[in-house]
Fold this protein.
Amino acid sequence: MKTQLERHENSLLRQDNDKLRAENMSIRDAMRNPICTNCGGPAMIGDISLEEQHLRMENARLKDELDRVCALAGKFLGRPMSTVMPNSSLELGVGNNGFIGGLNTIPTSLPDFGAPLPVKASMNVTPIERSLERSMYLELALAAMDEFVKIAQSDEPLWGRSLEGGREILNHEEYLRNFTPCIGMKPNGFVTEASRESGMVIINSLALVETLMDSNKWAEMFPCIIARTTTTDVISNGMGGTRNGALQLMHAELQVLSPLVPVREVTFLRFCKQHAEGVWAVVDVSVDTIRQASGGVQSYPSCRRLPSGCVVQDMPNGYSKVTWVEHAEYDESVIHQLYRSLVSAGMGFGSQRWLATLQRQSECLAILMSSTLSPRDHTAITAGGRRSMLKLAQRMTNNFCAGVCASTVHKWNKLGSENVDEDVRVMTRKSVDDPGEPPGIVLSAATSVWLPVSPHRLFDFLRNEHLRSEWDILSNGGPMQEMAHIAKGQDHGNCVSLLRASAMNANQSSMLILQETCTDASGSLVVYAPVDIPAMHVVMNGGDSAYVALLPSGFAIVPDGPSGDAPESNGGPGHRVSGSLLTVAFQILVNSLPTAKLTVESVETVNNLISCTVQKIKAALQCES
């Protein structure tokens, strides 16, 4: 295969040489006998000297550019390349980085670097500037992959174990001794977070790589972390019909489910490379420095991603071993004091959360594809009904996250009011022409509080339908009954259920509540919304869930820091009480007319609802401050 590639390359080079020789002869002939383009007669040599000068300058510039790209490709291929055809491609994504004891090179076809830029990206950009920018992207991607693979497979002294929680943490002094940061030095005032996590996931390497390289599938796999994402430029689609060598520019909004932690907006390259049969690496790296260097708009992001991503290795049982690394620099001053230790320990945006979410979501997909039902599942629901209910629950949870974090999924207007508690964020938006929501003015209120209760205990309390009356005004003061249940994982805490509140009197109809609960090593979620009974009958029979109008409310629970997920302490001198950070959020329709004005009473009502709910939870768990 290698010999064939080299023979093919030599043939292309020979053709190119013949072309250049013929072109050179015709130019010399034209210079000896210059002809005026206007009259067809002999031209004075001075008439073309300026044009010739421009051509010589352009020729010299193109030769320099060609030499630079050849040197870059040669560096990656491990063999010199004297020249390439103007439309030929670089061999990207092939090589031996010594991963897992030294792996063989994967021989593949050549990738296509001729993918056109989207119209938006190509406006006011000359072909020369685009070529230079893409060369810089390629150089950055190669450097990032090299650094990432070394970091992913290194152990001590580069990685050590934290005393709290036993997580892997990066030794920053050792990192700076061994690596030159490929995106430049850390900005003043920024702090670093770095984490690594490994685990088994019920997904094969090709499926996971495809998920990561498709922005829509990526967002679906990590719905509570990714608020919004787009692929802004595809530089290479890969080679030989695979994702090996795929390189693309992406933008994402990443979130921690709390109004006290701002959404992280990052623009980055994502580069995928196959290192051996069944072994892939996908790396991300911020591109802000390149954009500024190439004359782009001066931006001041609050976060930069150093080489981060995952290495995926196929296992014989249908599982994959995934090693995830997250390495970032960010402005800590924008994060509330309550969440700083969680984020700095890598538990907010770090590798533990990405891997735990991947494991939970992959398990859910495996269960949905299986024909066997969980013993707790409601057997009366058809397979189509299960799919429709899960799709509706997913939309509910996505809208809940968008309301908590104020991402750009919806156009929220933040309100400042004297009648709102200091740590409660109140926002409003208009809901118009969306069949999945009631029309009118939607008010969102969210806050985060610390509770001296373990995350596990808090989650079990909030998801228990028999204890719901202790905090939920929708329960009408009595226990709720579970009408339907769909398991989403081995843990009973991962499920979608339909709850019915008992009617207060004979004249009142009972109400249904759709609820989704999720839990993994990084945190838990309880999201619910009142739903229309006839509409849910349609959904449970496999009907379209897009027309079910709902507004979600709920809770997000995370440990309060590196030791907050440990078993509860018995107290005493020197013992830290393990606690939780609880986010409470409500979305409420305050007026069914989108043109209506928001009243002070509406804002006060939702503020009182939040503070009352928090007080009820504290009282029920006997942790009033």
